[in-house]
Every structure is written in structure tokens, then in C-alpha cells.
Records
---
Amino acid sequence: MSKENPGAIFDASNSWNGYNHQGKLAILFAIKQILEVYDKSLSVNENKHILEDYFVEIEYLEDFSIGKQNSGGEKEYFYVHQVKNHATDASSEYDSALLGLAYHVEKMPTLKKAYLHTTSDIDFKGESVHEYIKKLISLPAELNKILTRIEEVRNDEEQKKNLYSKKKGRPENFVSRLKNALVEEDDTQKRLTENNIEIALDSLEKIVRNQITAISSMSDAQISKIDLFKYDISGEVQAFCKVDQIEKLIKEEIEKSIGNIGLSELWLNNKYIHNRYLFLLGKLDEHIIERNLNYPLYMNRKKDRKIRLDTVLEWLICDNIETSDESFYQFMLKENFISYSNEFCHKCPKKQCETCLLVSAINKIGQMSFEEMSSFLTLTCPSNTKGISLETIPEYLSKRKIRDPFLRGIRDVNIPFEEDKQAITYIGRDTLQYILTTIEKDDDYEDDKDICTEIVKNKLLYELLMDYDCFISKNMNCTSILNKVQKLGDDVVLDERRKEHIAHLKDVSIITLSDFENKF
């Protein structure tokens, strides 16, 4: 919750870090708002001036919001958007989201619409969404369950301890609500503890009771503002948008902007539109990372979390995206990680989500700055000596290698990874540091010596490897990469400078994922 905006969920932008469905929807609706305001009779600069007052805001009042700063400098929200990427069509799974939207509508008369976006077609059992909401706010079972749970916890010390004890995996929804309520009460608090659990419970109870009171007397006109967004997908209107459909919608909006803003028709080719799509998401990524790096400043409102729509317009019309640098390619790789991990989760037969650290690991990757991401990529794919480019990305971190051993390792290794390390790193009982990688030996084309030689040739590793001892691979064991390479001077053409580097390269070993799991 936010003290400035009661009912606003506390910042969770590090969750999948803007690469997910939510961030892409924010970009889509930012472009839609720009095109709604844009006046073709005015110059681009004149339109920029108009758009200075409009903004998109990620993860504050709601998952994302669209609004305008009025003449008095205050924010007026026009649209709030709640995004749920659930596989289920059961309406009860969306009660909390609808109740949150109802609270916003009741508290903010400026709202034109409060939208729920889903990736599944919700089954309201023959009722309209508005009929369903009327029943929901008259008897908000979801909120009453929270009050019941609060009362149960207050009378059970073991339950209290369980709430603030550190656990592997993502926290349950109730714990997340408690943390948000605690920060609402005291924004200096970082986590739930024995000393503040009662404060968190009291704060959450107050928030929930206020919400129940606020929504209980909503009018039909207010309820009509809450809706499922209707998407036009390939000529078919539907009240949901699957994860794999959003890219097409954004690209269609980019194409529309080219004509509406009066840009060159040369920009209408598929390659350009695809690169523009990635460019926009990369810019959003930069914003989210910058927020995470400067979190205290945003929490204390010393920095503004809004993205002005004149800035998004500049992203739309920027003409230098064809000269992409490593930042652009880094973002493409982050997109790959998110896409492959989503697929991996959906197909995972284990369904041990409460203990799986995959989401935490992807969050870690998503929050990385440029320098951190560079180190992570070097350590995770140590045998790559070609650098990052559009051509090398498919080889550099392929879908197969990311899925196995990298994602499989995160799921199956039963010890937590080290949060403050540059790579996904485990410290074993032998106190050695193990890096989870995408190393996979292709038995038809390469042997251990080939991979070890490429690792030794990778100059970027020399300093990074000083803190590590062993790479985790899919199918390769090697007790010493330097011994495996043998007489490097005879096998590899190396200049004198590289020879000097090799002399200072820390010798490390390689272990298979299965052997590492059995060992620890």
C-alpha cells in the first residue's frame, strides 16, 4: 500500500522485472494513449509538449496506470490496470483483483476505467462481469478470509513464527500482503520479524476493514467502470490476451503509430517493427532497473516513478535503433530467459512451486545492471569467445542449454543460490563456489578439450573467475581445465598478451549437474 494513495499495492516491480505480460501491456497502453492524444495538425515538438503532462506508471497504484498531471502538479489517474497471468478460468481466482479495482474506483472519481487483464477466459457461470462484481462487493469473501486468518494468527504463536521465518521459494499471498501493510505503516521496515509481526497484522487488518467499508455502497455507475479489457486479436474480440499474443498487439500499435505520427513508410518493414518492439521493452527495462538500483529514493518520493509519455514518444520515433549496442542484445537475452523459463514452468511435471527458486533466479537476472549482466553472461556461458551480437545470440545461450542444465539446475538443486553473487552460485559443503552454467558438450562435434580451450581463451573470465572454483555443466566432468587443454601454445594460436593472461587464469574444474546434485 502507499501512504499517498491508500489501497495502492507496494512496489513489486522486481517481480519478473518488466519483461512479463504486465510490462508489455504497459507499453501497449502507453502507445494507445499517445495516439489518442497526438494531434497530426501540430508538429512533433508541439505534441511532445502536450504529452509532458501524461504518464504511465508501473507497479505503484496498480500493476500499471495511465494518467495526467494537472495544473496544480497533482496526479490524476484516468485508467488503472490489474494484470493476472493465471492458467485457471475460475472466477474466484480473480476476486482479489476485482475487489482492488473496486476500491480504486470508489476512492478516485477521476478514474474513467479500471481494467482487469487476464491470460485466460474467466468463467462467470453465465453472469456478466458487472453482475459478478455486485455480488462480490456485497459479500467480499476474499477480504473476510484475510480478517479470519489475521485473528487465527494472533492466537497462535507457531503460526506467527511461520510467517516471518525465512523460507525457500516465493512467499504465500498472505505474507506478501503483510509485508506491504508493514511498509505502509513504517517504510523503514525491510522484512517481517518477531518484533514487527504484530504491527503488520494490525496494519493489514485496518487496510482490509477500510476496503470493505469503502466498496460496500458502490453505485451501478461506479461498478460499470470496472471491466475486463476487450482485445481485438486477428479480427476476433476476446476478453483475455494470452502471453504469446501480446507481442503481435504491440507491433500492430507500433505500425499504427508510424502512420499516425507521419514517420517514413520505410519503417513499416517487419524487421524494423520487431527491433522497435524490442527497443521499447529495453527502454522499459532500463527504467525498472534504475528504480531497483535507487529504491530508497523512489520510496521517499525523491525520484518520480512516472514515465512521461513524451519520453515514450521519443522511444517511438528514435531513429538509431539499427545501430544497437550490447545493451540491446542483453535485453534480447533477458527476453529469452523469461520466455524459456515461462515455458519451462508451464511444462514442469514436479509442480513444487512453493520450494522452487526459479522465479527468484529470474528476478535476480531481471534486476541486473548492464555491468552485472555482462558478468553474469560471461560466467554462465564461459566457453563463448565471440561476444554478443544478433548473429551469435542463438548459439550463445540456446533454448536447449538454458532449459537444461540452467533452468533444470535452478529447479532441482536443493540448496539456495547465493543472492549477492554475479552468477547463479552455490556454496557446497566443501566451501567451494559452484557456478550454474549452460555448458553442454556435443559428443558428435567436440570433446572436453575443445570446451576447456574456449574457456581459457575467454579473456573476460580472468578477473571474474578469482571468486569461483567449479562450473556446473550438463554432461561434462573435468578436474582441471588447464590440464585438459595441455600445451596451449601448441594447440592454440595465442599472442604474447594472451599468454600472460593464461598464466594468471585461475584453474577451475567442471562437474555435471547430476553429480553436483548427488554430491550436495
Note: The first helix runs from residue 21 to 37.
---
Amino acid sequence: MATVPLLAQAQAAFRQGRLPEALQLIDAVVKREPGNADAWNLAGVVCHVRRDHAAAARYFERALALGAGAGVLVNLGFAHQALGHTDQAGQAYAQATRRDPSLALAWQKLGGLQEHQGQRGDALESYRRAVALDPGDLRSLGDGLYLRRHLADWRPDAALSPDQLLQALAATQRSDFSPHLLLSLPEATAAQQRAAANTFAQSQWGPVLALPPLAAQVREPGGRMRIGYLSADFCEHAVSYLVSDVLAAHDREAVQVFVYAYRAAGADDPWRRKAIDAADVFVDLNAMDDASAAARIHADGVDVLVDLTGYTGSGRVGIAARRPAPVIAQWLGYIGTLGAPRLADYVIGDAVATPPAMAAHFSESLALLPRSFQPNAGLGPIAAPPARSAQGLPERGVVFCSFNQTYKFNPPLWDDWCEILRAVPGSVLWLAQPRDALAGGNLRREAQQRGVEGDRIVLAGKLPRDEHLARLALADVALDTTPYNSGTTASDALRVGVPLLAFLGETFASRMAGSLLHAAGLDECVAAGRREWVAMAIALGNDDRARAALRQRVQAAVPASGLFDPPAFARDLERLFAAMLAQRRAGERGTLAIEASKAPGSTPARIIAP
């Protein structure tokens, strides 16, 4: 058999996810033709996908020694970056841009590394170079715009703008850019989010999606349900803050809990320890490639696999793409649709966050919990707050707060917040310190342009979680972000008794806070719309008695609401999982909803909306 057909077979095996077979074929090629640079490069690519980054780097270096071009230098840089060798990665990317200045991919990867190293200005210029070379380069467009949003850089930029990104998405059938950013763009509709998710899914895992599923049949009822939770975020992360106590609260007579983690965590990370303690079986998948990880989950006989990461930064949706469990649900980490039915059968929501009328926005069926879709740890004692002066806050004057990440901010939202500040004399806006100092200056400049003194924007540095919750109680009113609502930051405010003001949008991400407030029995904090929301904040800011009364209302309503009741939430989840399995066993598909559990051990609720 000739060398070229063998290499073509190896390439086909790689595209279809048959990585061991691809390596065997490549080995046959290089034994016949040791100087075949393309074969060594493909070997490196396969090893990189298998997460053997050291072997990948060696193979890329071999290909380069045989005369491979700038593209292989980019591959070498990516392997070094995965190994944490940032200096070597930077050298490889820079060398690629010198060898072939027209290679957009080299500028894209150089920009990503520069951003990782804190060189944000250089990163933006690299992204712009990539887009100038390839206007359809979605990854550079998206990463550059994402960085601009983290920097609160909202000035006109023809190269890196929401309109440019959405136009490029509409014009392509291939995408290597996760649609996560679209959740925070006011310009992106629910239909555009679903279309972008589908394009991304088909581009990244098309051949894998066509393979037979590892687990096709739902087993007959009987015995404990085996529930697997899959995430990068079983570590110091907001997802762990929310879900850890619920996992620990599962009824072990009804459920066996498997926890699958695929991001490294420090040995002293208390949230990793909580995940390990909450699991009946804990598996670290970090060193496994997607195929091996899926095989392990399948071997464990998991009935329902719950993806807690989705298209967020460290997600590995390729594991779920292989269908290692007969039922797959996505929940909590990604507040949107994955875009391809094979990636998840269900998205877990609730009647406020994901009402049945929104079903067309999702490739998944809706699975509705009776309270909020968002779990929470139980209520516990909060330390006394520090003095306002110690946090840079005025002793008098209303403190509005929003501890969301800066990328959730946008010009229309800033217009509203500045209108509120102008109308409430002496008030300040208390925000989390952005990850880059440039962002703080940009936010103050944007405030000044809207008639608000820059020193009324107060930035709070990062603190350990317990200390942060203690200081958060100093705030008078929490303001929601839109279209990407507050999640953990919303429940944190309610936990410490701070009223949160929100309104419902048209997407899952824009209805999160409303879901929490409804579940807490605080519908009076949900405005009818954007203008009503601004008016509500202004009225509350100017009425000390109304503000004090609402705070007392929050402090009374939250403990009685069940929003912070992990055992009750776990019972609801268990019955929802049972309903999913029953529906799939019957060969049906459609929106599921369950009624609230009355007590531990209650029987499964009826399916309200099959």
C-alpha cells in the first residue's frame, strides 16, 4: 500500500476520533518514509488531542527539523502552552509570524498567549492583525471582542465589534469560537445564539456526532439511579459554591453519585475536597482524552450524565458528544443551548428562567425544576461586616452594587446605572475589581462621559469568600446585569439580606435573576421592563424607609423560601432525573416539569408538560 493512501487513512481516522488507529497508521507511514514531515505533524496533532502534550511537542519539533512550515510552529506553540511552557510557546508563535506574516492563525494564537500573560494591549493588536488577514476569523473576532469587554473598552472598533462578529457568524458554516460571549451581547438574539451554537457544535465534533452512541438504551427501572456530574469546575469556582451541598445531599438509597472532574486543582483546594467527599465515586479525567473519558463514564454505567460546564472556558463537550450515558442533561455552567440535540437531551431550567414558550430557543428539551434552576448552599452564619470606610465606601449615601465580571457590562447597561447614580445624590456604584487595571479606568471614564464623577465608581479587591460575603452586607441595593444576569452574585446578595433588582429578558441568561427572586418570594423586586427597573432603583435609592422595609422583607423571605435548602433541591433533582429516564425509556421527547417535593422520600411527581 502506498504511503499517501496510508496517510490519508490516518487523517480520516483522526477526523472520526479513532485516535489509536490514526497513530498506528502514522507509524506505518514514518517507518516507510521517515522524512515525511506531514506524518510527524499529524502524529503531534493526534497526541495533542490525546492530551499527551509532551509527545506532541516532540513530534512537531521532528516535523520542523524536516522543513515543515509556519503552521507547525503554531502547533508547537500550542503544545508548549498546554504544558505551561509559556516562554517557548511565545517564541514559537512569534517565529511563525516572522516566517509567514500572512498566517492569521499565528497572530491569533500569539494574541491568546499575550492575553494570558497580561499583555492586553499587545493581544488586541495581534487579534486585529489576524482579523485584517482573515475577516472571517471567528476565533480572533470573538477573542478580541471578549477581551475588549473584559477591559470595558466600548469605543467604536470596526475590526472587533459585536456587529462584525454577528455578521461573520451569519456568513459561515464553520466556527472555532464558542458562542458563550453571545450570551452577554445585547445585539445577539436567542435565534442567533442557537444558530451559533449549532455551527460551533457541528464544526468541532461533526464526525464524532455521526458515530454510534456508546450508550443507546435506558436500563429498566430498579435499583439506585447512577447520576454522573461532569465539570471542569470542581475547584475554587462559582459552580462549586452553588452545587457542592446539593451533591452531598442526594439520597444515597435512591442515587449513586459519580463526580467526574477534568481540570487540575490544588491539593489544598477545599472545593475539590468537598466534591470528593460528596461523591460515591470520584474520577479525575484531566489526563484522559475525550474518548477515554467517555469510555470510563460508559463503563461506570451512568444513567444520567449532567454536564455542568458546557461552552464555558474550560468545557470539554467532546466527552458528552460520544454519548457515554443514555440520558444527558446540561445544567448550571452554560446558560444557553449547546445547539446540537446529540450533545444533551435536556437543559435544566424552571418555569421563569426557561418557560415552555422558549422551547424553540433550545436544541435540548426543557426540564423544569419547581423552584429556581439554580441550587445554593445552605444558609449559615455570616461574619459582621467591616466598616464602610475600610472598603472605600462613604459612611452616608446609598451603595448600589454589582459584583459581576466586567464582560457582562455594556453601554446600554452603563447608561441605566449612570442614570440611577445621577438621580440618587451621594450614591456610589460598588463593583468587583476587574481583572485588568485598564478596565477600572475605562469604567470611570465612561461614567464621567455620562455625567457621573469617576470617584463614585468604587472597586472592591478580591477576598476569600467568607470575607467577601461579610462585606457584601454593606451594600444597600444590588443591581442586576443584562442581558447576562447575575447568577452566583445574585444569590450571594440575597444570602446576606441585600435586595436585588432585576427584570426579565428574552433569553435564559437574561431571566436568571428573575428566577431566583421568584423562588425567594420576592416578585416585587422584578420590574416589568428596563425603564421600570431604572425607576424602581431610583425610587428605592431616594426613600430610606422603603429601602429599609425591603431589606427586612428580603431577610424574612429568603430563609422561608427553600431557595437555600440543598436537601429539598436534591429531592427535586432526583425526581426530575427519574422523569427524564421514564420519558427516554418511552421513546418520547418534550418539555418536562415536576411539582415541588413535599418531603424527603416523596414519590415522583407527575409530568406536567410531556
Note: The radius of gyration is 25 Å.
